[in-house]
Design goal:
Four copies of one chain form a homotetramer. Chain A has eleven helices and twelve strands. In chain A, 33% of the residues lie in helices and 20% in strands.
């Protein structure tokens, strides 16, 4: 088997950047990645992949936008394709591409997240996407977390794998996952069983948790998290004439927010709770009868997060009872924790990367949440191994900032890391006969 | 019928003051009026009254002290009497004396409250009860609201009525009510049906709501009120090592107290809520698992107070739910509102008093709560009429102050007002044939 | 002097309705009454009035919309006039028209409020303004409180007064006041001193506080009120990674809202507080650093409202301190209480109206707030007399509802009441020589 | 130098247990260790030590009981001694004994805490101190944390060191520290500079953090902590008649407690806050004007605890401001964190103990707070080394339980560990010339 490393030319960089910019122009937030999905599928099909999409790759979607938001976004797009778009346009976004070499070898899955952020991209002239004309064309949507880069890397790796199909072994699964922001999309993908027979799983993130030029191999410390929307529904009344006939949803929410913030003290490890958004009431002189909150919980492990969630349920129910209002708790996203390090496995991958000249760190903490943990846990539950990379990059502004931008050189590094690792895994697989799931 | 007014000699004043001082020495708080009750019964029996007491005059006692408090008070007394004390010593305090002239005439009931306050009487030398040696002999108990005077008046009126029995008509009922403080005792008395056949009901208060020398005839504006004790019961835990395993009763109570205080805004009239006492937790480093609160509600009318109570129930239940603790709500006292004025009736009484030289005001607002309202409402529900007097007096300090004392001249005025009014009522009764309930 | 009553023909009704519909079409919210003001001035000038407007009639405007809102509304209008619009278009809206007969007689001022509500008018076909084609042309603005009717009445009365100028005595001042909603505009007008020499002041409201067909003469029970916007400004931080580096404006606002609602218990009379709107935070996973609240206070009298306001200040400052955030309190409206009744004066006016066949009630409680109280208090402070009418009308839906509409017959009644009262006041004035402020 | 280990006979155990029981009988809580101190000084003097006590060994005492508590305890004791007790009886408790061999060698300091707990010892017959007649003679005071054992060990080690004076080198300092419970006493001792020239510091705890039979050598993970008493002082008022004239300390405390509990979320490590006790208000119908709280904070390091304290200050001040009450924050105890391990040093000591047959664990987490950290940090700041032992013991009930008791065999083990370690340190000192502070 030839060294995959040698196979990409100087042209690779240009293609990666072009792809990234193509997707930077059309950012779409979670479950609205209509154009993004269509583009991705078209590329993958053109490379010869079997592509699965729509309802087939989804089980239970969390945090769906409401129907009017979906319709609005749908109506401003003019999408054409030679395949059926109907399910995609209902929010069954994302795509899975499979390539089976039909030669003995491991099943290697990779995951690339594809959604943008609900941010209006900066109009400043010195913001590179403006200067070089690839800024977002969608109002209040922006690739401000580097997922445009992830897509570009995924498509490029897929192209190269397809090109090299005859020299490879095993089976390749490319998962282009929607709705990573707010940890909404991974659970839906995992629920379909797509990852049941995966030997190796690779994923990663641009510009996060790593210094410029550094490659983290085997990120750990992913926090368990849950995202909830909470609604209180009371009864309006004139605040001067008959305040007692109203039931005050604003006060229920205010008391709830305070009481929720008393929860996160846990002996077993770190815990977090944030009421990030609270909106209540319409008019100064009316007893406010509607309130809503957006909250999140986190825990160093799932037990903490799970207990925290039952306590949240108590506080919400109690606050509603206290003020005689109704409540609704809607889970809109979640992800399990991940804090394992298969040191032997990761060091083997790292060693390979170091040989190629990369500055590699092993086992650094992610320190936040990412729903890739659903996929990693699923793969490992089924006996496979997983690794998460963090690709250090020079940034123009922090993630989720309206002037976020990254040095595109990281695309080549990330592409390279995937290709090198695939190479290593195939070798590794044979050395220890890890390919449990034969591809006959 | 002779004018009752003329029948009391100069000696009356001395007897009133002596009686008042006798009772001032042995103040006893609600449901603990053991000695007080025994003394009253003895007096009444000596005048020839049929006296009812113990369980016969009680239905449902609220706000009873706990058994150990009862026992402790019982053990420090040496009571002797030629009648059975057992029920009295179980807290069935108070007494009802009845005199039936067996001549046609109205049934006239009077109520005198007999309990003291949970206050340590001032030790200051210039406090008259100290100077003249009639200060409280009971630690942390004091007649600081003038009920000692009420007892003296009641006994004196009863004595005179008994003496004049042959010149009078109708039936007389003297109610010596326990536990007025905290509005605990009246409901229990009323529940026995004692007031079912009463034509006229008289009661009053010394030194409250009236200027010195003023007699208010027909007080109104009594607020409905409820007194509640609230308990929260959680789970202790080490606050440093495993805070999450505790359930915090202190925070439940704190949130409850704040949320309760958001309740009293009612379009239909005045409302009040006060969390007067909150005690929670034992140790700085333990998640506090016990909390208790003493609260009260008030309303300009019963509807307001009743709705307020259901809201209180919601807040308490919701606060408990929010923090995962148990709760208990114990009603320890209540009284209905009273805000009616039968102007014709009251003016007739007032006219009589004015003739005697009193400065009389009609229909002044009481502005607080008094459980005499249970008795007044009961009498009126059954077709009778009621009047509440306020006897203006010079005070040494405000009611419920540990230096409270009143100018004993008010005793004679009050005694006189009762006697004059009895006289007038008997006449009035015959003039309009109001004696519906014949005493055959 | 002829009876003014006889002077309006059958045509009056049609003119009133036409005018009302003309203004119903162009509702404009407080301080944005650009077109409304221009129309009113044009009418008044055409009748021969001296009209004052712009900065001359304003002292201190409260609750101004921000500059971008002003600009946006300005840009969608095409206003032409032969007088200078510049100050009007900066939000110095409203107009004052003066007519001096130069004959001895009283100065009579009338006030008509002219602003609409921030409500999108209902699109329902059976909503009369839709059916008869006079619905609002302005998005999210609607005359849903009858001020369109008030304008029509004011213009019609002004026209008639101008026509009859030669038969009248004294001086007439017509105040077309902006921004009554939210009690923002009156204070600004009063501050200019326009009402210093007024003998009689008349104002009123359509469809409020009176039954259909009823005319309330001498409304009382106007509550003192203050409207405040409150802002908290903290510091954002990642809620998972470094929550301690944020300063939480949402919790400051939540605690503030709860604590504010514990304030309104006052012995001296009714008090009210409402946090009507609370908005805080942008993102689920960020410590929320911005919060804003819209609140109002009310009091049965100014002392209560004033003390309540100082308590509000304490709570807001304390809440900000507690959570380490900055705060700002912006008064956006206020009105004093008014609860006086000059019974002799009002009965004289009422008697006159009863003679004309109206069902008149005297001294009914308004039960809410209206900044006309600023004008009434000012007139009375200077020795004048004031009266506020409530014109009962059949309504299609309650005030401030998006289907609000009133039976236009009330316009004629109201017009008539003003004219009758002017007639009576002139007569009255001469009978008691009340015209203190001579018009030489 | 002979092996110190060999020098204690079978009799040692009996003496240790006798001493422990002597002190178990007279437990005294923090700053009230009058009898305890006198006994300790007497023993130490009898061994020939120079003993320092009273004001000389104190700088700044925190959490002193009030004067009446001091007087009451003083008055129930009959203490006689041939030295001046006056400062001790003012709460300058504890003692420091110094022995200088006047031979070159290290300065070794040891600390033994001497206070008991505010607990009524169990009366159960099967509680060993009852069965064997050494239970507490002081009401509501008990040695429930093993400090009686610490005293016995300290006195016994001091006796042996004095006996062997001629065979030893260097200088020995025995610190008998008062008021460890509530972390009140250490700071006061350290502030005098007593530890400035110490080379080695030893301390330890019985029955905590170690299994039965286990010796932890080099405990780490001591949390920084602060103990605060918080007072709110408002204004009383009748809750029905004039609630607005009161300033509510109960609500200030309730809001404060809730808001305090929202604080402990820190990115840098574990943080804790507990409001353990809240007491407010006297009477149900009075606006409560007094409130007090007992709280504590903890942090994984001092930065966290320090920032947490500034936040506590904000919340308390803000809560007071919100409700118009005064506040006072009284620090009553604190201790820094300690989480260092000089592995070489500790392993050398441990190795020696293992040779003697002990089951030794190195570097186990204490997991709570102990103000010995003040002493350890001070010694290390000045270039010395410190070690904290945890002596595993069989317990009858957990620490701070009213049936706490420990298997007295641990006394011998602990005594032995001190003696062995002293031996090792003297040797160690000479091997590496660590005796920087010469004793000429």
């Amino acid at each position: 088997m030839e060294n995959i490393n040698s196979i990409y030319s100087d042209n690779t960089m240009k293609k990666l950047a072009d792809l990234r910019r193509e997707f930077h122009r059309c950012p779409e937030t979670g479950w609205l990645e209509f154009e993004t999905t269509v583009k991705i599928i078209s590329y993958l099909k053109s490379f010869g992949y079997e592509v699965i999409y729509g309802k087939k790759i989804h089980s239970e979607r969390m945090g769906l936008p409401d129907e009017s938001t979906m319709r609005e976004h749908r109506e401003q797009l003019k999408l054409e394709a030679d395949f059926d778009l109907s399910e995609i346009l209902e929010g069954y976004t994302g795509a899975v591409a499979i390539l089976d070499t039909r030669r003995d070898g491991p099943t290697i899955a990779m995951r690339f997240d594809i959604d943008g952020n609900e941010i209006d991209e900066a109009k400043a002239e010195n913001h590179l996407p403006n200067k070089e004309n690839f800024a977002s064309l969608n109002k209040n949507m922006m690739h401000a977390c580097g997922h445009d880069g992830h897509i570009a890397i995924g498509i490029s790796v897929a192209r190269k794998i397809a090109e090299r199909k005859e020299q490879l072994r095993g089976r390749f699964i490319f998962i282009f996952q929607p709705a990573e922001e707010g940890v909404k999309g991974a659970k839906s993908i995992v629920g379909t069983g797509i990852l049941k027979e995966v030997d190796y799983f690779l994923s990663g993130h641009i510009g996060f948790g790593a210094e410029e030029g550094e490659i983290v191999c085997g990120a750990v410390g992913f926090l368990a998290t849950s995202k909830l929307d909470i609604y209180f529904d009371g009864k309006p009344a004139h605040a001067g004439a008959s305040p007692e006939s109203g039931r005050n949803a604003l006060l229920a929410a205010a008391s709830c927010a305070l009481n929720l913030h008393t929860l996160p003290q846990f002996g077993g490890g770190m815990s977090r709770l944030n009421v990030g958004v609270l909106k209540a009431g319409d008019a100064r002189n009316i007893v406010p009868h509607k309130a809503e909150m957006q909250i999140e919980t986190r825990g160093e492990n799932e037990e903490i997060n799970a207990l925290l969630l039952t306590r949240v349920q108590d506080v919400v129910e109690g606050s509603a009872k206290s003020f005689g209002v109704k409540y609704k708790i809607v889970p809109v996203g979640d992800a399990p924790s991940y804090d394992k390090l298969d040191r032997d496995f990761v060091e083997r991958l790292a060693k390979n990367l170091k040989i190629e000249g990369y500055k590699v760190t092993i086992g650094k903490a992610f320190g936040a949440s990412e729903d890739v943990t659903y996929l990693m846990n699923e793969v490992e539950k089924n006996g496979g191994k997983s690794v998460y990379f963090m690709f250090g990059a020079k940034l123009a502004a922090p993630h989720h900032h309206n002037r976020f931008d990254f040095d595109e050189n990281v695309l080549k590094a990330a592409y390279d890391v995937y290709m090198q690792s695939i190479d290593a895994l195939i070798k590794f697989s044979f050395s220890i006969d890890m390919n449990r799931h034969k591809t006959l």
